[in-house]
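Researcher: Hi, I'm a grad student and pretty new to this. My advisor asked me to get structures for two proteins we've been looking at. I'm not sure of the right format, so I'll just paste the first sequence and hope you can take it from there.
Model: That works fine. Here's the first sequence with its structure tokens right after it:
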Amino acid sequence: MEKLDWKNLPFGYLKTDYNVRCFHKDGKWGKPEVSESEYIDIHIAATGLHYGQEAFEGLKAYMGKDGKIRLFRWEENAKRLLQSADGIKMAQVPVDLFREAIMKAINLNRKFVPPYGSGATLYIRPLLYGSGAEVGVKPAAEYTFIVFVTPVGPYFKEGIKPVNMLICRDVDRAAPFGTGSFKVGGNYAASMRAIIEAKNGGYSSTIFLDAKEKKYIDECGPANF
């Protein structure tokens, strides 16, 4: 492991040693498996590629002053993944499996947890997608759940300070009765035009207004409003 400049880490991806994978087949989840590979084998007709059956979470592990690693409300992330999976008809990841996978990924990559006081954290990315092959528009019969981790700096380079946001009026982040309330990849794809416009204009990110009346704040670019 190369020596990392913990205080100047970007918010991006750095390779760590291990990730955790689990597969849903024949109506049930298998046991978590540990992998050293950054890559996945995926069927060319996987529903995650063609029909957007994909959801993810993002949470962080913090090194305490006492040398203990702590998470913030991981149970809420597990619940939200359950909601997202149900919203686009994927196999749901049980809370116990979610916990086992994230804890295993953290412990296996403990040396990548940034030290206390560095301002950096270990970002945890649980990912769920339809890996079963379908050509007709219908839910997959098989699903893959992966947890990988990477050390990151602050999401906004300015740190914990006010940032300038572009109020976007010509792109809708979500539609009434759509998938906007679920943490699925398609929502992020839909926001990229506005995010690029904001970055080009010198803003840190975007604020999206409600699609119906354009009166209320609906969400912001990083989807954490």
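Researcher: Oh nice, that was easy. Here's the second one.
Model: And its structure:
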Amino acid sequence: PVPTMQLLHCHQSSAAGGANVLVDGWRIAAALRAADPEGFAQLCTRAVTFAYQDETAALSTTAPLIELSPAGEVRAVRSNHRSLQQLPLPATAVEAEDLAVWYRAYTHFARLVADPAFHLHVQLQPSDLFIVDNRRVLHGRTAYDAGGGSRHLQGCYADIDGLHSTIRVLERSLSSAGAR
């Protein structure tokens, strides 16, 4: 399961490198949809499992790589090659063909994500706060020289539904206060 928002606060950053690399997953999905509609459809319909576990966590979710709204618009993109589990072997020739299309589309998707033309590099400075919608933005960072300075970033996660709830409650409170 992906927390919908990630917040990253830069406390110290004097080490060389370590830029955040951002990729608009929705833009990647649009490029894939235009280039390979059949493959795009496979990435939107074939559920895959992402899993992570260590001594204190056992996380797992099964969903398509690309999630669409009822209107067919991209609502979420899931991509984490480290937690993507092996897909089940196909039982029929039709399933094998569909799986081949899925892998073709996934490879194309991964190449687009790796393409520097889709990258935005952001170098955080002390006191910068970076907020990412994980349903849309894929992110990582460049290498940095750990021996060449200090680096301290503090991260946390938040759920966008909780944020929307807080905003609605505050708006309701402000409306009630204004009506008095």
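Researcher: Is there anything I should tell my advisor about the second?
Model: You could mention this: The helical segments are 25-35, 37-45, 93-114, 160-179.
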